[in-house]
Amino acid sequence: MHVTDLPDRSQDYLKKIYDLQEWDRSGASLSVLADELGQRRSTASEAVKRLVAEGLVVHAPYGDITLSEDGRQLALQMVRRHRLIETYLLRELDYGVDEVHDEAEVLEHAVSDTFIARIDAAMGHPVRDPHGDPIPDGDGKIAVPDTEPLSEATVGQRLLVDRISDRDGALLRYLQDNGIAPGVHLVVGERPYPDMAVLTVEGRDVQLSVASLSAILCLAEDQ
Fold this sequence. Notes:
Strands 3-8-4-5-6-7 form a six-stranded antiparallel sheet, with no helix packed on it. Strands 1-2 form a two-stranded antiparallel sheet. It has seven helices and eight strands, in the order H-H-H-E-E-H-H-H-E-E-H-E-E-E-E. The chain folds into two domains: 1-144, Arc Repressor Mutant, subunit A (Orthogonal Bundle); 148-220, Roll (SH3 type barrels). It is of the alpha+beta class. The radius of gyration is 18 Å and the shape is globular. It is 40% helix and 16% strand. Helix 1 crosses helix 4, helix 2 (30-37) crosses helix 3 (41-53) and helix 4 (69-93) crosses helix 5.
């Protein structure tokens, strides 16, 4: 089966379950999945049941939702489409980093495999998208780095930003405006308030809400 044999909504569910598993390193709850896709819980439940019947998803009663191996391979096809399109929009069409996600959400269902292969080749086979997310290759292989969310960092720790979640466009704009992007080095400062973090980026302090720290994945640097 190819992912384009599935309805668009099924494609969305598989990709979102993969995204949640990749980012949070665990299965997705039904309520979180429904919220992420803007669906009612009852609608999401029926969609998941169909995917379970097709052998693409595993869902124990009251447990997390995970992908079967077949489901994971189909999800990776959609992830590849999405992340390559995001990269092409940013590099070639001058889209903003906060604009590419929503546009790719539409285009990923419409373009052919030939189009995806050609933009991949035209860009020199990129391995990361604009947010730092790894791009699966044409065989569905993907290298996911071992990172930790910024929310788990300690004061004084030196970090390299590896990935930034694309779920919040306003946060992406704020981070970009303040020089925080994949590949940037930062130091974790003292918190002036319980809900406010301070990061030192290229010699200047940047304030960030503690709630948004989990949207940034980092690699620790030698102290």
